[in-house]
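Audit log entry. Action: structure prediction of a protein-small molecule complex. Ligand: magnesium ion. The ligand was supplied as SMILES and no pocket hint was given, so placement is left entirely to the predictor. Protonation state taken as written. Sequence taken verbatim from the request; no trimming, no tag removal. Recorded inputs:
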Amino acid sequence: MENNIRIEAREFNAYYDKKCALKDINFKIFSNKITAIIGPSGCGKSTFLRSLNRMNDLIENFNVKGELLIDNENIYDKDVDVIFLRKRVGMVFQKPNPFPKSIFGNIAYGLRIHKMFKNYDDLYMKVENSLKEAALWDEVKDDLNKSAFDLSGGQQQRLCIARAIVINPEIILMDEPTSSLDPTSTAKIEELIRKLKEHYTIVIVTHNMQQAARVSDYSAFFMQGELIEYDETTKIFTAPSNKLTEEYITGRFG
Ligand SMILES: Nc1ncnc2c1ncn2[C@@H]1O[C@H](COP(=O)(O)OP(=O)(O)OP(=O)(O)O)[C@@H](O)[C@H]1O
Ligand SMILES: [Mg+2]
C-alpha cells in the first residue's frame, strides 16, 4: 500500500518566549501508520505533539514559525477552527485523566458537546462501540454508571482512549500513554494501538525503546529540538544512519 501523507511539518519552529524548542522540523507522517517519537528528555517531543492540535496555544508566549499541515492545510492559518481541529486530532496523556463522571458519562460527553447522536439508543450504541473498540467493554458493561475513578489505571487509560475515539478523530496523539501502567496494562494498550491504526493515524511519544520497536511503523529521533533521523522503525532500530540515533537507542545517553 502506498503511503499517504497525513501530517507534514515544513521548516516548523516552536518557541517558548525566545527559547527555541523545535528547530526547522521537516517531517512527513503517514496515514494509518503508527509513528513513534523518541529522544531524550526536553528534546521537544511533547512540544511537537501538542503543536499538532494547537494545545500549546494555551501557553502564554508560545509561538511558531513555518508550516504544520494536516491534509495539506496549515493548521496555524488564521481562519482555522481550533475546536474542529481538536475534534479531528484527539489526544491521550501520560496519566489517565478521566472526567469526574460515570464511565458512561465520560464517553457520552464528547458526543453531547458535538451533538453527535440522534436519540438515547444511538448515544448508548456509540458509547458501547467505542468501549468495545478500546477493548474495555467486557470489563465495564455492568458498571457503566460507576465513577470512572473506580477503574484501575490501565482501565482508565483505555477509557481515555475510548473517549478520544468516540468523536471520530482522524489522528490520535499519545504522549507516553503507558508510562504509568503495569506490564499487563501496557501490553493491552499496545495491542489496542496496533489495532487502532486501521482507522486512525497515530503519533506516540515513548521513552520505552522496546515499545517503539514493538508498536510503531516509523520512528523519529529528536534531539535538542531537531529531528535527527526519521525512517522505518526496523531501520532505525537495526541500522540507524546517524551516530546520535545509534547512541541513543543503545542507551549510551538520554
Ligand atoms: N510551558 C513551557 N514553558 C517554557 N518552556 C517550556 C514549556 N514546555 C516545555 N518547555 C521547554 O521546551 C523544551 C522541550 O520540552 P518538551 O516538553 O517538548 O520536551 P519532551 O521531549 O517532551 O521531554 P520529556 O521527555 O521530559 O517529556 C524543553 O527545554 C522545555 O524546558
Ligand atoms: Mg514530554
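Audit: result stored. The beta strands are 5-16, 19-30, 34-38, 62-70, 73-74, 89-92, 171-175, 201-205, 218-223, 226-232. The chain has ten helices and ten strands.
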